[in-house]
Amino acid sequence: MSEIEEVVVENSASTTTLFDKYELGRLLGCGAFAKVYHARNMETGESVAIKIISKKKIAGTDLATSVKREVSIMSQLHHPNIVKLHEVLATKSKIYFVMEFIKGGELFTKIAKGRFSEDLGRRIFQQLISAVGYCHSRGVFHRDLKPENLLLDENGNLKITDFGLSAVKDQIRTDGLLHTLCGTPAYVAPEILVKRGYNGSKVDVWSCGIILFVLVAGYLPFNDTNLMVMYKKIYKGEFRCPRWFSPELRRFLSRLLETNPVTRITVDEILKDPWFKKGYKEIKFHEEWKENNEGMENVKELNAFDIISFSSGLNLSGLFSVVEDSERFVLRGSPEKVLETVEEVGKVEKFVVKRRKEYGVELEGVNGNFGILVVVYRLTEEVVVVEVKRRGCDIVAFKDVWMNKLRPCLFDAGSSSNQQVAGDC
After folding, report:
1. pLDDT grade, residue 349 (50/70/90)?
2. Which backbone phi and psi does 12 adopt, to 5 degrees?
3. Residue 57 sits in the same domain as residue 204
4. Do both 269 and 128 map to the same domain?
5. Is position 144 annotated as part of the catalytic site?
6. 121 and 267, same structural domain?
7. Between vectors from CA 48 to CA 154 and to CA 18, what angle results, nearest 5°?
8. Does the predicted model carry a pTM greater than 0.90?
9. Which positions fall inside the NAF domain (predicted)?
10. Catalytic pick from 20, 62, 119, 144?
């Protein structure tokens, strides 16, 4: 069975379509649990990269947590120097990351062809710091910054990718530090090696220093075929700058690769450094992210990332299955039409109908001992997510009213394709 079996439509001998939306192209790369393809959005003509992940291969492993974290983080980051995650799709066995396609490829490949000039290295580093500072301001720490996770577009602009090892503020312990050991050996900060906890922003700055050195030197500052020897060099901060480095760059690197995280330069200090500031223009962009509103009182516009947050596991196909006291599923139609149907059924069944602000309806038994809350979230112009919750009533009564009376009416009220839509989820 192929990677894309469940969602493929063979239009011709040379065309493969995913979800009736993306025309799949050439294989860009593959790993132990994922493959990345070039694809084209058939509606807009836009090129995208689609990472296909096998749920079976990552189930019950740390990779499952990594994938969920990456979705959660990338969905909230909107910066011109960070690869954009357009949407996440899923079937019973696969997860599909639909991402911005970067034509230029990995920064690692560019460096392998020859070192950059100091001015070009500075321009790339300025974009890197702009994106890293943006992440830190939102409580996100990448923790695996390296040329392999940095892409260049056709205009030579930097794009950070692969947030699978990232951490967020919620992971910080009571001592104010992170403790998970991660990263790539040659780019890992010395404080990670001692296993006493570390500051996420400081280890990212260290990795940025390594990247800057590699950009302008063409090789790593700390390197050895013996891993323990390399770690000792990192811990002691033993490196030498090549003769073509300017005095200003040497001084700047000594602050970036300061082994003591307390005295290591910060992102705010980097922005004020004379070497860094040369030719620097603050990157201005439109902030797309939105603050999450608490409760369900306001209109909800949901995307795939919000749906994923509903799930307790990675089996996205089970997101809309019935649980003990709630259910979520997808319908075609408008929020207004769905709630009108709920109200009509409620009145027929002699419930007290209470309209919540915007897209919510609560049904109560006349004696107050029965309650169902129905909230509708707009997913697209044509599709909504319906969430139904039991409100203090007997589970048997809830299932009887919901499954036998209300739910069938919702499906009947929509188009004939609603059964198929819900089933596909």
Report:
1. confident
2. -160, -175
3. no
4. yes
5. yes
6. yes
7. 160
8. no
9. 297-321
10. 144
